[in-house]
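User: What would this chain look like folded?
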Amino acid sequence: MNSPSFESSSSNRGARAVFIALGAIFIAVTWALSIRAELHSRARGHGEMHTGTLRQEFAKIAVPPEVSPLHDIEVRAKVGIALVEDRYTGTFASHKVLESYRTNLVIQGWRFVGERSNGSGLTASFCKGEYEATVKTHTENGYSYYDFAMAWSDITIEECSPA
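Assistant: Here's the prediction, encoded as structure tokens.
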């Protein structure tokens, strides 16, 4: 003989347990979203913090003679990355452009990492601390151009890792 108060008390306990579980889930989801937003904000800010240094480093490197920029310097910062780059055109031989950048970058404290074919030209890579610089030459249908870029990434490439 169950009394009516016992049955309603039992259903209240079940409702209370469900309410507590939903509350806990709400708190956990809210906490996780706030942590994610904070990490995202910090990572984006960190990328933006590097653009000033990259701009300064970029400005120290002389452009080889007989070339001119195709547009203004592009500066981008996203979550975990910062990039400063420009594209140049003119009358040049790929090896002369790479030689010029190799000399100027090394004078400014950059370390030459390597050079490889990129299909339509050559790519040379350099490191300075946590920063990477690349020079990519291209020749397409008799038209020559090259890209010069400096970047920071929160995923450090092996060659630029501190020793």
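The chain has a mean pLDDT of 81. If you want, I can go into more detail on any region.
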